[in-house]
Amino acid sequence: MRATKLLLATVFSVTSGLALAADITVASHVANVPFEFEDQNGKTIGYEVDIINAVAKQLNKTVEYTSMPFHMLFPAVQSGRADIAIGTVTVTPKRLESVSFGQPWFDSEQCLTVATRSGIDGLAGLGGKTLAVQTGTVGEIWATTNQAQYKYQDIRRYDGNVDALLDVASGRVSGLVHDCPMDAYYIKDKPQYKIATRIPTNEQLAPMFKKNSPLIAEFDAQVTKLKESGELAKIYAKWFGEQAGAESSVVQTRPIPTLSASTN
């Protein structure tokens, strides 16, 4: 009798878990204010989160978010542990070799953020100094590629931009090369920081999927609807306090990125 009860309890537990499982699992790097972060109640919110939720609502699907460091987003979708990954992920030819992306929904560039009192006004001021980057990002790629040109002595890697910026303020590092929109949002009410210069990189941010995931087509169709209806532009205005540019990836429908197109 006891064995039967245990078996029934086990079956009930498993089936209950299956019933509660979300339709779409999303890996996210929640240190990305205002793109994805946690509110005071631990709920995941932000620009990219609102887009995911809007798409899920249109598809009548449930969503579950799991937080992880940025560099872990890639194996999460590659292994199938997550259906989608968000975290201000830039589309690059190298990444397209191992993952797929939906259409871009944000245009970005890199910034050098420094302490206001540092006296650094541009990239030339980094000579002999230590530069911070976030592991696995375009900022890290840029810093590695351009170290010989700008002669900074060392590159220090972080899991997130907030810890890096704290070290910028304390003087442990001289500056951070990272996504402009995120850092500009973070420092807007913090006079101890300034953006020394912008670094044009012509980046496009997009949701990331397992290579050739069958979810991409139906997900992308809903993103197009959000753009055409103006709903995505409203989400942008909510988080950034301004209207999106008429030619931006917030407003304009973009093709799904492919390796052949990105290398032309």
TrEMBL record:
<dbReference type="GO" id="GO:0015276">
    <property type="term" value="F:ligand-gated monoatomic ion channel activity"/>
</dbReference>
<feature type="domain" description="Solute-binding protein family 3/N-terminal">
    <location>
        <begin position="23"/>
        <end position="243"/>
    </location>
</feature>
<feature type="domain" description="Ionotropic glutamate receptor C-terminal">
    <location>
        <begin position="23"/>
        <end position="242"/>
    </location>
</feature>
<dbReference type="InterPro" id="IPR001638">
    <property type="entry name" value="Solute-binding_3/MltF_N"/>
</dbReference>
<feature type="signal peptide">
    <location>
        <begin position="1"/>
        <end position="21"/>
    </location>
</feature>
<dbReference type="InterPro" id="IPR018313">
    <property type="entry name" value="SBP_3_CS"/>
</dbReference>
<keyword id="KW-0732">Signal</keyword>
<dbReference type="Pfam" id="PF00497">
    <property type="entry name" value="SBP_bac_3"/>
</dbReference>
<dbReference type="GO" id="GO:0016020">
    <property type="term" value="C:membrane"/>
</dbReference>
<comment type="similarity">
    <text>Belongs to the bacterial solute-binding protein 3 family.</text>
</comment>
<dbReference type="InterPro" id="IPR001320">
    <property type="entry name" value="Iontro_rcpt_C"/>
</dbReference>
<protein>
    <submittedName>
        <fullName>Amino acid ABC transporter substrate-binding protein</fullName>
    </submittedName>
</protein>
<dbReference type="GO" id="GO:0030313">
    <property type="term" value="C:cell envelope"/>
</dbReference>
